[in-house]
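Incident log, structure service

09:12 report received: a user says their structure output differs between two submissions of the same chain.
09:20 pulled the input from the user's history:
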Amino acid sequence: MVDASLKLVDSVQITELGARDGLQGLSETVDTQVRVTLIELLEIAGLSATEVGAFAPTSRLSLGTSPLPVLEALGHPPTDKVRSVLVPHLHALERAYVAGCRDITVATAASRSFCRAMLGCDIEESLHRIAQITEHAKPLGIAVRARVSTVIDCPFEGPVTPRAVAAIVAQLKQLGCRQICLDDTTGGGGPEAVGTLLHTCLMETPMHTLACHFHDTFGLANANVVEALEHGVRAFDSSISGLGGNPYFPGAAGNLATEELVYLLTGLGMHCGVDLPGLLLAGEYIDCMLDRRTESRVGRAMRAKIPSHGAIQQHNSR
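09:34 re-ran on a clean worker, output below:
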């Protein structure tokens, strides 16, 4: 049952991953102009934080998402927009700074096997890299956001204990990360597991420093968002049209669709600053460019009511 207090006017921050995490697993690199147009449409729709790519790919983590041409084409971001890039190690930080990035994402995992597969190193080494990055980023005026993968379940090792996740969260908090995002990589966690995880992490960091990243593999992403909201989380990751997946977990669904998240938050009376019709246009645009069917049920239902092909064609003709 949804807590009645959630229906009060409240604000939620959304970080859009479609242009980076959502496109990384595709077999072909997406054209730069398509990625730029997608980001522009997402920002027009009201999304204020977007991951646009990753520097120095070390694995399938960042395949085909080099941000340099995208950042150059986009130009300097508006003062009310954050365009973040994934920085896996210290050498990449310099490249990000020279490219004009002032907000970055660093990554680790709560299971050793997934950390090795994703980053090519153990958890301890990944945290050492993050420590180096944060130490050098602060004097450069660069904010650091951290993402912790496999916070509930690992495709190689199975269940992950909340205490293991909380220990990593404590270290990231000590390093000065502005936000720590908990990523249910397989989508196998349900509300009970999410609640236990958040309760445990709260012992190490205030709830306002946490964000959640849910995959919809088992259809639990929306239920997990509600659970996280009831625990006080007010920041979530999502991907337009449900883009994304997990190369290490065959059959995994993409990230929670941004359309689903915005529709849910709107229904709860919570403010996220995103215009749903504009979001539907962005989703239809990237689906047309990729020749794919949207993974968003909200997108499918609402596109049938709001024709937007003409708007897409008009945007492409500019």
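09:41 both user submissions now match this output. Likely a transient worker issue. Closing.
09:42 reviewer note: Residues 58-64, 313-318 have pLDDT under 50 and may be disordered. The two ends are 47 Å apart (CA to CA).
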